[in-house]
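Q: I'm writing a short explainer about P22 phage major capsid protein family protein for a general audience and would like to include a description of its predicted shape. Could you first generate the structure from this sequence?
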Amino acid sequence: MANTLLTPQEITREALRVLHAKLNFVKRINRQYEDRFAQSGGKIGATLNIRKPPRYTVSSGPNLSTQDATESYIPLTVSSQKHVDMTFSSYEQTMQIDDFSKRFIEPAMAQLASYIENDALSMYKSIWTQVGSPTNPANALRPFLQARQRMNNNLAPLDGQRSMLLNTDTSVEVVDSLKGLFQSSNQIAKQYEEGMMGRTAGFDWLENTLLPNQTPGTLAGTILVNGASQTGATLIADGATASTAALKQGDIFTLPGVYGVHRETRQAFGYLQQFVCTSDATADGSGNLSIGISPSIITTGAFQTVTASPADNAALAFAGTASTPYGVNLAFHKDAFTFASCDLIDVSKYGAWGAREVFDGISLRLARQYAIGTDTIPTRIDVLYGYTTLYPELAARVANQPAS
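A: Of course. Here's the predicted structure. Afterward I'll give you a sentence or two in plain language.
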């Protein structure tokens, strides 16, 4: 039987299968395939609106107190196009798909998966809940149980879709300390899945080498609230030392007397509400700075987040040490984050051989063209995607001291 070239569809399906298997984080979060681009093809910059359900307060007594049913939306911009570019000889593309996959597709998709994961894991900076210690290793179960507690208090579903993603430093510490807990018999087969460690304490535990460290800003001076009764997503402060890197996106702090509340009953928890800086903040020459924060300071109503607004001159207490990196591990429910992929334009109508395939919310496009002068087939595999944090309250960071 004469050898025939592998078809674009065969290569694309196999590439998508391998990519999905290597996406440790992305395949465990909410994934949305945007099929409205199936015909025309998507472009960088397209924005999708992800609907969030309305929230209400409960009234007491016989009198009617109606509320508007207000739905909110989270904009998700499809802003990242990543691709792997290869050239094959016509001989190499006559191989069996298994051999071709092992030699060419697997290393290419490992690279592509790393870039996608690295992008998506930057969403940790939007999470305001943090437990553990930036100055000690995470080598006991307690901080992970605290992450579970905070997620439970924030109404994360108990539906078996929670994951605990560990950086490599913590993986060494925690597996040695807790190895006796990873013994669920129905998990034995999954030990061969890349990165899978087991399930305990309500989480699937996995290792991911791409989890970044958080490096706080200079935090110089004594940063104080500038003005009483502040609410909203911006906090005005003063008392800092002039610096372009006073605060960094992802820095976490608390405010005295500002406690978190239950999202349904609005009853106070016994711990201070944590806030995360949503962007870098610069302190001017007088030490003033404007800090973008999440969650917003909301003291009443259906979306109440805290017991009270901070007092004037209240001091911000930051996690970690100025300009000193600390490790981040990530506990999350599937719906804390969302990843959206859409079809790129089908280039086969422009003379290239192409194929598009979708699997589990991820769309991949392959395009190739024969180069007669060299008897080779230049090939590219592309993915177009975006990601955003959908429900930050359904996730928690576990800090750890990096290994020296």
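A: For your explainer, you could say: The longest helix spans residues 97-120.
Q: Perfect, that's easy to follow.
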